[in-house]
Write a structure and sequence with these properties.
Blueprint: E1 2-3, E2 8-10, E3 12-13, E4 18-19, E5 25-26, E6 31-37, E7 40-45, E8 50-54, H1 55-67, H2 71-80, H3 89-111, H4 115-122, H5 129-140, H6 142-153, H7 157-166, H8 168-171, H9 174-196, H10 200-205, H11 214-225, H12 227-238, H13 242-251, H14 259-280, H15 284-297, H16 306-323, H17 327-336, H18 344-366, H19 369-376, H20 386-404, H21 410-424, H22 428-436, H23 440-444
Antiparallel strand pairs: 1-2, 2-5, 3-4, 6-7, 7-8
Helix pairs in contact: 1-2, 3-4, 3-5, 3-6, 6-7, 12-13, 14-15, 16-17, 17-18, 18-19, 18-20, 20-21
Length: 466
């Protein structure tokens, strides 16, 4: 997600480096930051105002529209909240597939001079504004569409490709995909003939219908001249050795024009997309799996996704601290990296810390030093939680003095005050205790504002001994 100075928030497609033109949120005020928590996107504005989008609620409405096969409302919902399409992609794909099948039949009717029948075939798919606009565009260019359809049907691929290259609308039609599929089949047959049967003549014959297509001539010549390179690359791809495949592409750029290269590119794009979505949803376990796959198989992406990869390394370290019960270090890491604060692991850690602190405080009042110290020890090396732990140790020391005040000798008092100040400094609490029990003279032996050094002093259960 990104926001602009006009108060619009957009989705960024990191795979294709494109911005979703329709914003998912807009406001008259400037959005300064936003955060996803429990399927809600919260927005903080320049002047402190907060608002949110309830993704779960919008998704529930959308699924009801899907159940009712209400295509207009399905696409309206996705139009109003584009982020929904990332969660129900399969459902939308099914409707898109239905739409494309109908569109194919409708174009045939347009080519046969029956636009009204074409509209009937499209049916309720035209309730979608986007589908209706596209269909109207096809009707508007019906002459070109008909000419293109006839060129494909008559296997006049030279004409069909020339038309498609001059008009993007034609490349979006299923008939263009069918031409590309025909080329892929011809390519695979030719490769097999070259490798297995060593028959370049038969291989060349596979491309007769593409021989006069300029955009295909280079890859055809390259295949006929270097079949072993294409064979090796295709084998590496089928073996899922994507890093090896990438190295072959680096040394032989013609592989980028091979039909199987698109499968490689689609796989890479899908993995990046899944990785980015997992990161945005704070599903770090799944993101870690994608990260490992991407780093191993697509090393060229390491620099592109370096920030996210480094974030996952921090998350792994965080999890490692928690598993090793190094809670203090985990808390420090979270305080230094705010993205950890929204993770489930941090919530669990926070519960552990709160429970330990509460239990340690009870033990401090009871005077059970050993048990208290066991609970607090993991927090003493943490800048984030050390002060909370020290407050509980203070409670223990002060409680020991209060509980034993009637039987303390002068030496005990001296030791107790000295031990306290050595660890916690000459603070307000010890000054109040000294005044309460007329021990100001002992306190006067220490300068005001003196700071203790708890970590460099030996931990002792008895505050009264030197």
């Amino acid at each position: 997600l990104i926001s602009d100075k006009m108060g619009y928030v957009h989705i960024v497609d990191l795979v294709d480096d494109e911005i979703e033109m329709q914003p998912i949120y807009q406001s008259k005020e400037v959005v300064t930051t936003f955060k996803v928590i429990d399927e809600k996107i919260f927005f903080l504005f320049e002047h402190g105002k907060i608002s949110f989008i309830d993704i779960a609620k919008d998704r529930a409405k959308l699924l009801k529209n899907v159940e009712d096969d209400d295509i207009a409302q399905i696409y309206k919902a996705v139009g109003d909240n584009p982020i929904l399409r990332f969660g129900i992609g399969n459902v939308l794909d099914a409707h898109d597939e239905k739409y494309h099948k109908r569109l194919e039949l409708a174009i045939i009717e347009i080519a046969n001079g029956s636009p009204d029948k074409a509209k009937q075939i499209m049916g309720n798919t035209l309730n979608s504004e986007a589908h209706r606009e596209r269909f109207e565009q096809i009707l508007q260019h019906s002459k070109k569409v008909t000419e293109f359809y006839n060129a494909v049907r008559q296997v006049n691929y030279q004409r069909a490709y020339a038309m498609a290259n001059s008009m993007d609308l034609l490349k979006k039609l299923v008939f263009f995909d069918k031409m590309e599929k025909s080329f892929e089949i011809a390519f695979n047959r030719a490769l097999e003939l070259l490798i297995k049967k060593k028959d370049p003549k038969a291989a060349k014959e596979q491309f007769l219908v593409f021989s006069k297509v300029p955009s295909k001539s280079k890859i055809i010549k390259s295949l006929l001249a270097h079949p072993e390179k294409f064979s090796m690359a295709k084998r590496k791809l089928s073996e899922k050795k994507y890093d090896h495949f990438a190295q072959l592409v680096k040394t032989f750029k013609d592989l980028e024009n091979a039909p199987f290269y698109k499968k490689y590119q689609d796989l890479k794009d899908n993995m990046i997309h899944s990785f980015v979505i997992s990161m945005s949803e704070c599903d770090y376990k799944k993101a870690g799996q994608y990260c490992k796959f991407l780093k191993t198989n697509f090393p060229e992406l390491v620099e592109v996704l370096i920030d996210d990869f480094e974030k996952l390394e921090i998350i792994d370290k965080f999890e490692e601290f928690i598993e090793g019960k190094k809670f203090g270090k985990a808390m420090d890491l979270a305080s230094e990296n705010s993205f950890l604060l929204t993770s489930d692991s941090y919530k669990s850690l926070n519960n552990v810390v709160s429970t330990r602190m509460d239990s340690a405080m009870i033990l401090a009042y009871k005077g059970e030093f050993k048990k208290m110290h066991t609970l607090l020890k993991p927090f003493l090396a943490s800048d984030f939680s050390k002060s909370k732990a020290l407050d509980i140790y203070k409670i223990y020391y002060l409680e020991q003095i209060e509980k034993n005040v009637m039987k303390l000798s002068l030496q005990h008092w001296k030791n107790a005050i000295k031990n306290y100040i050595a660890r916690f400094g000459k603070d307000e609490q010890i000054i109040l205790i000294g005044r309460k029990y007329d021990k100001d003279k002992i306190l006067m032996g220490y300068e005001d504002g003196i700071k203790g050094n708890f970590l460099n002093c030996k931990l002792i259960a008895s505050v009264f001994h030197h």
